[in-house]
Amino acid sequence: MIHFHKISKRYENGNDALLNISFELDQGEITFLTGHSGAGKSTLLKLIMLIERPSGGRLIVCDQDTAKVGRSAIPFYRRQIGMVFQNHQLLFDRTVYDNVALPLIIAGYRPRETGRRVRAALDKVGLLDKENLSPIALSGGEQQRVGIARAVVNKPRILIADEPTGNLDPELSAEIMDLFDQFSQVGVTVLIATHDLGLISRYDHRLLSLDSGQLISDGTDSIAADPHHQIYTGGY
Ligand SMILES: Nc1ncnc2c1ncn2[C@@H]1O[C@H](COP(=O)(O)OP(=O)(O)OP(=O)(O)O)[C@@H](O)[C@H]1O
């Protein structure tokens, strides 16, 4: 679903943020991404979102060579990816419903289909009864669940979360992780960037660790074991 093949990223000022990174995430896999501040986590997520482009290597997402996704195709490309942020990035002058509906409105869905999908997403995160409230009236954990509903309302194939439990206590973090597990079980590939070693240790998920732009460990050693890797690398 996501294949980094010898990816490097050097910013214009000469900063090497990622160095020769290779790994592959399968459909429905749930993976943590960790590393010190400045290790390259955000850069890696930005490459998947096509907010930044690699300086070298090949990045395949949902069977698409991202180098071939031109600027005008980026909005369509991004519909395959849901994004969850630490600070939720919700609009407090809109209702919960409106916040979750936003990606569908941008994508041009009709009101009836929008309503159906928004309510399905809110039901999934247990917030159907809060649709008319402002997010400001919700707890931190509930706000994060609104953010998750908004991220999945488009039925993305990939869910990327950047410090999704940063402000939450362990109990609420577990609720958020349960939701991610449910999405992975229906085939969504989930990548969670986090500094939270406590969170990582409570789960048995694959762990990618970055250090100064290098991938220093991959919890499953799946790069060597994965037969697809041979197929992809053969042609590059
Ligand atoms: N736009 C940019 N221009 C130049 N250098 C950048 C840019 N963005 C990030 N960097 C540099 O790239 C390296 C990796 O940064 P990145 O933000 O990816 O790390 P991170 O692991 O996400 O850190 P944090 O956990 O603090 O968010 C750092 O040295 C950073 O200073």
TrEMBL record:
One of its GO terms (cellular component) is plasma membrane. Keywords: ATP-binding, Cell cycle, Cell division, Cell membrane, Membrane, Nucleotide-binding. One of its GO terms (molecular function) is ATP hydrolysis activity. It comes from the Bacteria. It is found in: Cell inner membrane; Cell membrane. It is a peripheral membrane protein. Residues 2-236 form the ABC transporter domain. Gene3D superfamilies: P-loop containing nucleotide triphosphate hydrolases. Homodimer. Forms a membrane-associated complex with FtsX. This is Cell division ATP-binding protein FtsE. It comes from Ketobacter alkanivorans. The gene is ftsE.
